[in-house]
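Below is one protein, fold included:
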Amino acid sequence: MVNKKLKIHFVGIKGVGLAPLAITAKEAGYVISGCDVAEEFITDIPLRNAGIVPLPGFAPNHVDGIDLVITTSAHGGLDNPEVKYAKKQGIRVLTHGEALAQFQSGEIFGRKFEGISISGSHGKTTTTAMLATVLLENKKDPSFAVGTGSIPSLTSCGHFGRGKYFIAEADEYVNDPVYDKRPKFLLQNPKIVIVTNIDFDHPDIFKDVSEIEKIFLSFVNKLDSKNGVLIVCGDGDYNKKFAKKYLGRKITYGVSIDNDYVVERINISGERMFFWVKKDKVLLGEFVLQVFGEQNALNATAAIAACLEIGMPIEQIKKGLSQFMGTKRRSEFVGKLTTGALVYDDYAHHPTEISKTLQSFKKAFPDKKLVCIFQPHMYSRTKALLPEFKRAFTNSDEIIISEIFPSYREEIDPNFSSREISEGINKFGEKSTFIPTLRGVVEYVNQKKYSKNYLLVTMGAGDIYKVAQTLVGV
């Protein structure tokens, strides 16, 4: 039974990890407060819609009278002054990873959920939102935590439902980069795990893809041997190798014909996509999404497999997926320039994601010239994957590279610049311009006056989305 008087304070409440939890806890009946920096975040609207107004900055008195503090690993993490004061006062403190695990299990609410966790190097947010949409559209009323801002097909990025399922992203990153280097997802104990893919990322923590594969295996090996199931993409060398190493019950999906679920006949028509799915060589039918990109057909197929596992009829699954309209910062249409050029925004920040996303735009808009405005995220990632970044933009007609958006976890390296990406792109015979500041990018685009024959997409995990907003005046 929920204790409606329990007061929970979120340190870093605007982050895409904590905002969904704060909204979920508010819906569950808890008294919620939180604090963060004053700058604009993509979670501002869902927080405001939930009636949550973040306190500005960080001050110990924010936690006076609080029963539980949940903290991000940003803004000092466990060394944040509010967190340190809370511990000194004997107030219980949970990290984001610990809190998400307790939300998903139901422990924090005094009830039990069956957890469905979506993990993988890419596609977690979209797949989580898709699955939540299908269940919500079919009156299953799941609880969920989706790591983004607004989601048109859902009530919010977080929800406390009456149903028995809690759907959540499962992140391989560490619980705290200083004090607790356990991967966050090892704290979760779901019944169903989706692994969208395995790829090398987070070079500040992991040395190579083998190390990443190892921690993913540790996660899926926690599944119950009788009732648990792994749903994993079976395309690509890394994914196939990973799937073979898991000895429990598993379901594979992908475009390769040796998968249990096979995606066929992907057809993009504008911003809609049609595709067939076969299960064990038997056609389940044609599915429709209001988003484009082969990667989204794969994400949807993972959601289809999960829905069939929990006993949903195929027609209900089709209906639910048809209502999915994407999420904030995932191939999101922002508006048009005064010239008529289209402007989109996307969160892609890894070379694999960039390449696939740009390919999707090219297929969806074959008559448009594509301009990618990319802001790298993290010095460690940009350095480690520099050769891959230089080759990731082949589907763009023009590339604009801004300076690196540093992580709070790292120091700025004055001897390294994303100019190296731009120069590398030009050496491969493509057209790239390096413009370090976002203001400079806006001025450059306005001077170019791209016509209606162009599509511009801002891309990256930092604040590059502000360029798209400024260009279209939102």
